[in-house]
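Chain A, query sequence.
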Amino acid sequence: MKSATNSMSRAYVLVMLLLLTSLTAQAHVASNSFLSLQVQGTTVTGTLELAIRDAELAIGLDLNHDGKVTWGEVRAAQGSINLYLARHLKLANGDECATRFDAVRINDRVDGKYLWLPFTSACSEAVKKLSIGYRLLNEEDPSHRGLLSLTAQGITQTAVLGGANPTQNFDLTHPSMWYAFDEYLTAGIWHIWSGIDHLLFLLSLLLPAVLIRGERQWLAVPRSAPALIGILKVITAFTLAHSITLSLAALDILRLPSRLTESVIAASIIVAAVNNVFPLVTKARWRIAFAFGLLHGFGFATVLSEMGLPPGARLVSLIAFNLGVEVGQLAVVIAVMPIAYALRATRFYQRGLMPWGSTVIASLALVWFCQRAIG
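Chain A, predicted structure.
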């Protein structure tokens, strides 16, 4: 029995370390594009923002294979970009609308440079129901999603495009409030699952929840109750904190610069992970969760601001997005913590995953901090 447990522990630690190590070159694994559409009569005008790293993956912009994509290479690839988008992004109003892309431009975002592609789609009749087929990066990166903002007759709808449901239909005459709730709930879940920095911060605080500090080493909690209380304190503090700042930022009451927010989020992961290796705060980790959770809320708000809050359903959409974040993080906690509790007394958890896993997390976050702070 002991041998089986040790084997399972070894495998668990190895998988976790390999997973974390594989992410060291990425500042944020979420792959999102931003699609903005305005409908007027038979015409749909819009812009698509696609990360250059994603365009390189899908199309191959780096013509000389030197690891850098230059403005000259982007301009030279205009024809290939247009052809790729024509095949993977389709608008229809019964019949497919004819789409013409204008000259590509470059836009800077906090996570890097994006292609900025304005376009115009001409439909055969006045658009009342719009079908959007979104298949960008389906083969190259199944985790990729498109964040849509669709405006018609003064009403804005939003959606998350791509994935298992590549084609979505939108009623422009009677938009549903509950459709907005469903879309923002999905967006919140997707953001917490794809936002590896938020998850690693939470994981850094939860790893010690099944341990107690004694005699300069981590020891297994004797009973489940202390571990459960510790987990609940951390989750509650993090949830309360990021809900406050997410709401303030989404309602334009208080905002912080994106680069500052993202840099401090990376710093928060470093603090939480290093505290596992050189413990200063052992019994009140919920305070760390609350303090830095306030900054993570501004990070959540950045994605929410890109989607926009529909004028007719602002409160519903905000609540749905926040609920989605909570559902996403609770799913992760439920999946991870029972395993952590089962392995808490093993040498591999106490002397393997805790110190070395936390070290990998801190190192990864340091890379992110440098990338975000320096740009």
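The longest strand covers residues 112-122. The radius of gyration is 23 Å.
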